[in-house]
Amino acid sequence: MKDLYQQGTKKLLEKPVPTYHQAYNDSTAWLMSCLSELAYKRFNEFILGNRVQQFVDNKLSKLVVDNSMGQLETFVSMVEGLAYDHEQELKELNQSLAYLNAELIDTFDKQGTQAILVETEQYYALAFRGTEATSVRDIKSDVNAKLTSCETQGLVHSGFKHAYEQVASDITLALSSLKDENKPLLVTGHSLGGAIATIAAKRLMFKNGIAACYTFGAPRVGDHEWASHMKTPIYRIVNAADSVPMFPPNSGVLSLVSTLLSWIPSIGPKLKDWLSANLVGYTHVGDMRYLSHCEPEKYDSVQRLYHVSLPYRLKALWVKTIAPNRLIKDHSVNVYRKKLKCIAEKSWLGD
Prior knowledge:
The protein has helices at 9-13, 26-38, 50-65, 69-82, 86-99, 136-143, 158-176, 192-203, 224-228, 251-261, 267-278, 310-322, 324-330, 333-349; strands at 103-110, 113-119, 124-128, 147-149, 155-157, 185-190, 210-216, 222-223, 234-239, 282-283, 287-291, 304-305. It has 351 residues and is of the alpha/beta class.
């Protein structure tokens, strides 16, 4: 996040952040995208699970016995590539937070779910880490899309619920120890982190109130009943052709797919029944802000839109599918942050 330290950032940080049950705010959206990106800092110690450790040990032993030095060197390099210095990552996290006039209060790491709790002069913020390509637990959380009952009414994504519950008690304990009674809590996250943040915004209890939840490239989390009982303002930001917010598919898409499947002999009806039993009912919660398409690193022309049609989204998705690397970039939290900074500067610094 070296580009964070640019002209204009300091002026944005001087703008006051609205508090309890706040309306959407451009500078707040940018700040939350910064924290969502910083949540990816690997402050948690690098530890191989027992099964992975056993696999690595067995693989190394076999390569040594077989005297396969070339393969051994490649395998060792691969394992080393997964490792990191968590103390250095934590140091960089604190440095970046200091530049944002924020301070790290606590970190959370349990069974594949990570989050950071920070404090500024105006608010507390809880940012959840998104999907990591090297984390098997993250991938399991994403694909375990069966709807299950939620304590707060309605049905919710099984994997996201499980991920939230890994750290829920630790977060509740940390929040209860916060002493400033005038600062509200903001919740945020990108991708999987956004999904977990949405659940946290509904289930967490905080004595000072939860001001809002900002998510970036977050998937659908629950059904209509679950969404209808959400009290915290949810602002979900979607960038251009980012496809993650289109999953799990909503009822309209599933209805079309189910109809098509019914025409396939033998396996079609079975797949249709599986979809009906596991995925029917998903909907988004909250208010969307859509970031228009821009050429890479040319974000001055970005527009923040309140609504875009499905054909418009599908067209953007189709164009990006031709160039898959651009499709991946549209989901990058780094791109979200840069675009939101341009929007915030035009919105606030132009006043």
